[in-house]
Amino acid sequence: MIHSLFLVNSSGDIFLEKHWKSVVSRSVCDYFFEAQERASEPENVPPVIPTPHHYLISVLRHRIYFVAVIQSEVPPLFVIEFLHRVVDTFQDYFGVCTEAAIKDNVVVVYELLEEMLDNGFPLATESNILKELIKPPTILRTVVNTITGSTNVGEQLPTGQLSVVPWRRTGVKYTNNEAYFDVVEEIDAIIDKSGSTITAEIQGVIDACVKLTGMPDLTLSFMNPRLLDDVSFHPCVRFKRWEAERILSFIPPDGNFRLLSYHVSSQNLVAIPVYVKHNITFREGSSQGRFELTLGPKQTMGKGVEAVLVNSQLPRGVLNTNLNPSQGTYTFDPVTKLLTWDVGKINPQKLPSLKGSMSLQAGASKPDENPTINIQFKIQQSALSGLKVNRLDMYGEKYKPFKGIKYMTKAGKFQVRT
Amino acid sequence: MPYLGGEETVRELRRALSNPHIQTDHLRYRNTIHRVIRLMSQGVDVSGLFSEMVKACATGDIVQKKLVYVFLCSYASVNPELSLLVINTLRKDCSDPNPMVRSLALRNMCNLRLPGLCEYVEQPLTAGLKDKAACVRRVAVLGWAKIHALLPNTEIDAAVVNELYGLLRDPDPVVMVNCLRALEEILEEEGGVAINKPIAHHLLNRLKECDVWGQSEVLSVLQRYRPRSEDELFDILSLLDPALLSHHVPIMAATLRLFLSLCSMLPAVCVSALERARGPLLAAAGSSSRELRYAALCHIQLLLRSEPGLMGEHYKRFYCGYAEPPYIKQSKIQVLVELVNDDNVAVVLDELKGYCTDVNTETSQAAINAIGSIGRSYDDRCLGILTGLLELKQEHITSAVLQTLRDLVWVSPQYGDAVCSALEKWEDQLQDTQGRGALLWLLGVYGDRLSGAPYILEDFIDGVRSEVSAEVKTELLTATLRVFLSRPAETQDMMGRLLQHCIEEELDMCVRDQALLYYRLLHCGIEDVRRVLQCGRRSDLSLGPLIGRPPEPISQWASIFNTLEPLMLGASSLNMLSFPCTRVWFLKTLCLFVVIFQAYVMCPVPRCSPESLQVALQLVNIQTLAFTAPNKLPWKISILFLSRNQKMFGQKCILRIKINQQPEHPHCCKTNTHILITPC
């Protein structure tokens, strides 16, 4: 299935290669480099590149291309998903997935890749199984290992791979039994010039961290399950029960996992939590442009909007900006023309604004297009769609677990056109 | 690969590895090996340390073993003789009480990739199949596939194949899936694993136990199974139904593909499966991974080929984000065009208008093209947008707009007046070859209505010496001749100059031939010229519906769903923009092709015998002049086309059609068919 994997950095060097079936020469990557040269931006490299004898399927994450070499027909979604899993695993192990981190931990990387694929087929990809096979490097463990000579490889076979419930190992024990659920919603929206919504949708997930002894059987019910019409579940959820009663009933995997993901897109349901007032003008024949931007909260159910970050790619003709933020800091990179304004928290009494002038290239005609403004923000303690968990019950075990539910809203791809 | 400065380090490492003090110190020994692996990953040639590393292999420390194995597997092919030494240690490890050690040894024994060592490996592999630890069985099963890949010519023992079939019922799901994978490879020549009813049901029942990767592979193997009865079919379908909603996209796609292949006889079930999978597909199209988004979009384009209404109300989810890479934007634009209907046409056009000024030229051209193709079936607002774009005076936009206008008026001649008024004030210079070709075509066709046409042509004719593109020159010849027909006084002189240049000085044979043809045609008299050249200026309105595709049956694309092909189709349709011959030419010939072969023959060319084709063509006044024997590639045919309605190419013309490859799908005809039309 997957013949070989090459890791390529943004300057076009192969810094790691691993072959599973047979050794494929590095020269196969020349086709990839050609595509990389043609692309103006790193992310413009097409994900599937056909070559005379192979296909190259690549994903770009953390400015590293993970290029898989494929020799026969495969489902492309499968390979893409697998490559993302590889990156997630690296990130999980090393904290960050950068070229330097991979080079530092090259031995662990080889061990991981060896366990994740055999003969080109995925073998062990679940992070809790992998972590039993190969312990992640930590500073403490490295120190301890050098002193005691112990290793970062589990000497025992991972237990529980043969349990009746494949996603949960048997004989789990915790002193503090706890189950936490995070409801995280990301809002993707495009707002037009006049402030009306062109598209808005919410991608939500419920991530869980369950540390419970034994084989607990959980049920989770919602106040308003009708909101969830477009849902997909972790395989542990009993689908029939959900269809019949709209209750989530499941034996949870051990540790962190994504219980479900959902999607809310009917426009009237999506409340836009912030508004932007803007006035960006370029005058014909003048080398000055005006820039005014004010942010304000709207429909946030009384919760504060935090960690607001605004960025915008200004037109090529803009030489420099002279702006004055009422709060936070702003930077403008004259080379990439990227304007970034770190606003912080929005105070509804005193709305943050950024005002001033832009200097344009003298003599050039006025830019055809006004810039698009991207906004990032967070709202704690609130799920924008209004989804609320009603109760969580546990059956099958005797102890009383500690339960917690947290809500959070984040901006996904939130754009305002001006 | 040689690496300067590596030699000294390698020598030092060799000393360290053979130093008895270090060898006895567990920790230092391992750290030295660590360094070797590190150097290896940096591209230093450390193959010289092979014999030292072989010795390091005999240890109880699992980490050290793993590291040494990584080294040995990379350099075994360089040192086949020394590798023989490793086999002994490995075989000893295969009987170690620790299952981890056993599986590790077995896996690496197969990974040495030395055909000469296979005989030593077979015995431990056979033992491995019966091992009591699942992890050893997993490795052993795949080991047979590796052996098969190493020795492709030798038959794998039938007993082993039987054993593997038996292991499909292993309690461990990974062993089961690995068996499937191994058998697929070993039995590739026989068409893979034989799936009979008991095996299929066994796999279906255990589907839930497998991990996500295993599930998607089992699903793809199951495609070869055909249920015996309708009851069985529906049992299978209801078992698979929840997987259509899986949040794991690969599983959803594999399930959908299985659904489509199982229900190929039940179109209604297919449609409802598509509807059920719509949610997850849309979610994948909005996923945070670019690559996943692109793959999902390509598959959505496939679905829309048969179910154009499927995503209708979700068109807003295909609006492009600002920072998306061009390949995603372009496929989103293609999807948007499919989703246009009476209710949303205004909104979508507004959105597409925004994309026309995209920084990426290909994206903006794709958007302009999209507006043009919406214009074929919807109102003239498209024309307003397109002519408005001309005022931006951006080279690449202007060129794309001209090409789109040309294609548009050819299909919808009622827009002629609007195009003329847009071109009335034309005074730009264009560099782009295709844009100039389009401009010339428009000038030729509307020369009588555009007051400035002769003057623009004159500029072109004055610059013909420095013109490099043959395509522009042939368009220029035709356009000049056409304008000459309507405005002889203004054009005669420059036409003479142009013909003289093309006949006497031109090096390109095609251009020269065309000039000669026109020159002789002019000798025949003005009426003949008019008949040949002006007949093609107005297209037949009844051809309109042929441009819009009718929905295809799902079975047309079900076989390529969830394969690499849809992603390639996406890429090739981008290349269509730079198709070497002009789009009008292409469109014309394609239409003719479609008219002749679809309307009258009703089946793709190579499948019917040339004789029946001949009879069929005679019915519409087409004489077959010559053709090659059937089933020969390239397949060529020359036909004489006697048209009664005179709308296409005049009264008579010879068509030479050449088909280079057997088309698998009718739409492939476009790319490997060559059609040459000569008016006569």
Automatic annotation (TrEMBL), chain A:
Keyword field contains Cytoplasm: no
Domain of life: Eukaryota
Compartment annotation: Golgi apparatus; Cytoplasmic vesicle membrane
Protein name according to UniProt: AP-3 complex subunit mu-2
InterPro entries noted in UniProt: Adaptor_comp_med_subunit, AP2_Mu_C_sf, AP_mu_sigma_su, Clathrin_mu, Clathrin_mu_CS, Longin-like_dom_sf, MHD
Organism: Esox lucius
Xref: PANTHER family: AP COMPLEX SUBUNIT MU
GO biological process, one term: vesicle-mediated transport
Family the UniProt entry places it in: Belongs to the adaptor complexes medium subunit family.
Gene Ontology cellular component terms for the protein in this record: clathrin adaptor complex; cytoplasmic vesicle membrane; Golgi apparatus
Membrane topology: Peripheral membrane protein
Keyword annotations from UniProtKB, A to Z: Cytoplasmic vesicle, Golgi apparatus, Membrane, Protein transport, Transport
Claim: Protein transport is one of the keywords in the record: yes
Gene: AP3M2
Principal location: Golgi
Record domain MHD: where: 176-417
Automatic annotation (TrEMBL), chain B:
Localization, UniProt: Endomembrane system
All copies of domain Clathrin/coatomer adaptor adaptin-like N-terminal, residue ranges: 12-522
One Pfam short name: Adaptin_N
Cellular component annotations (GO), alphabetically ordered: endomembrane system; membrane coat
Highest taxon, organism lineage: Eukaryota
InterPro entries: AP_beta, ARM-like, ARM-type_fold, Clathrin/coatomer_adapt-like_N, TBP_dom_sf
Keywords: Membrane, Protein transport, Transport
GO biological process: intracellular protein transport; vesicle-mediated transport
Bilayer topology: Peripheral membrane protein
Main location: membrane
Keyword Glycoprotein annotated: no
PANTHER family tied to this protein: ADAPTOR COMPLEX SUBUNIT BETA FAMILY MEMBER (PTHR11134)
Annotated family: Belongs to the adaptor complexes large subunit family.
Protein name per UniProt: Clathrin/coatomer adaptor adaptin-like N-terminal domain-containing protein
The organism's taxonomic lineage, starting at the top: Eukaryota, Metazoa, Chordata, Craniata, Vertebrata
